[in-house]
Design brief:
With about 325 residues, the chain is mainly alpha-helical. It is about 55% helix and about 10% strand. The chain is built from 15 helices and 7 strands. It has a 3-stranded antiparallel β-sheet. A two-stranded antiparallel ribbon has the order 2-3. A two-stranded antiparallel ribbon has the order 6-7. The radius of gyration is 23 Å and the shape is elongated.
């Protein structure tokens, strides 16, 4: 028979409401914190500031790469996500580029260069946890379950039995899988972007690496041998050449020939994750038809060509553009 604490912890994950992802972030924080615990007995006090650091990391990574909506109120983002986005904006201004980088890689830079803003962000997240999350987390079947943990509002700590933390540690792999799965299900209710569960999972499993797009040049050159910029229509010097996703990569999480075009690096940088205009979509669809004719005329075959054919047949450009909007 499963341990009572573990049963209740999983029940919280499985039966949480779909208003936002706060409970998933709390569950994940506790499991991650348990990995550093070796204490066998007694009560362990976990400061909300320690949990706030985990929240910031989770929401930073899901936001900076995929800009995932984390709550059902589309007009007002969850307040902790707002604090995270404010820090991301400050970070972008500080480094002068919008290149997405996972939090673990830039935490030291933020601590050194945005120390005051970083501490203020963590304090605000901790206050948000105290107000809206920590006391709600253990609520199951109309009851608060102090045997999961107790929330000390005065000290702003979560007090949890050391034995229970060891149980989380012993089952961390299964718990992470369950949390990620439920997190993905919640996100699917207010995000239209594809591959939601994969996006959630990939942040835990490995670095999010963007693939080398140079393999697409041979095919792109067929339709655009002068290498004119899709954005400004000027010819691109070799040192300024970049390949861009018309429908943002953060939405599709995929590199597809039908969505790739030549642009200036500077044009690409200024565009960031902007949703393409209707005229952009019209131009991309026309480009794809011209490209399709050329690749078949030149007897080119392979996966990217097959994907181009399917994309045109099923009108992926229009469908994903509407979803992205």
């Amino acid at each position: 028979m499963e341990n009572s604490f573990l049963y209740k912890f999983k029940k919280i994950i499985r039966e949480c409401n779909y208003d936002n992802t706060y409970k998933m972030a709390m569950a994940k924080s506790l499991v991650e914190i348990s990995l550093g615990n070796d204490k066998q007995e007694g009560l362990i006090k976990i400061p909300l500031l320690d949990i706030a650091e985990k929240y910031l990391k989770y929401y930073w990574n899901q936001t900076i790469f995929f800009d995932l909506i984390q709550g059902s109120n589309l007009k007002k983002q969850p307040i902790i996500l707002q604090y995270t986005k404010e820090l991301i904006d400050l970070y972008y201004k500080s480094i002068g580029t919008n290149k997405p980088i996972r939090f673990e890689r830039v935490e030291k830079y933020i601590e050194d260069n945005l120390n005051i803003e970083y501490k203020e962000c963590l304090e605000k997240i901790a206050n948000g946890l105290s107000k809206d999350v920590a006391w709600r987390f253990t609520f199951i079947d109309n009851n608060y379950n102090d045997d999961v943990y107790t929330f000390n509002k005065i000290d702003k700590t979560i007090d949890i039995n050391a034995i229970n933390l060891l149980l989380l540690k012993a089952n961390f792999e299964d718990l992470f899988d369950l949390i990620d799965y439920r997190w993905g299900l919640i996100l699917e209710t207010f995000n239209s972007s594809p591959k939601i569960n994969k996006k959630v999972k990939i942040i835990d499993e490995q670095d999010i690496k963007r693939t080398d797009l140079s393999k697409f040049k041979k095919v792109l050159d067929l339709e655009n041998p002068q290498r004119k910029c899709f954005i400004c229509d000027e010819i691109i010097d070799e040192n300024e050449l970049s390949i861009d996703h018309v429908i943002p990569w953060s939405y599709l999480y995929s590199d597809d020939l039908w969505n790739l075009v030549y642009v200036h690096k500077s044009c690409n940088s200024s565009k960031s994750n902007r949703i393409p205009s209707k005229s952009d979509i019209k131009e991309l669809k026309g480009r794809n038809l011209r490209l399709q004719e050329l690749v078949h005329k030149n007897n080119l075959t392979g996966k990217m060509i097959d994907e181009l054919d399917v994309a045109i047949e099923k009108d992926y450009v229009e469908k994903f553009w509407i979803g992205c909007k």
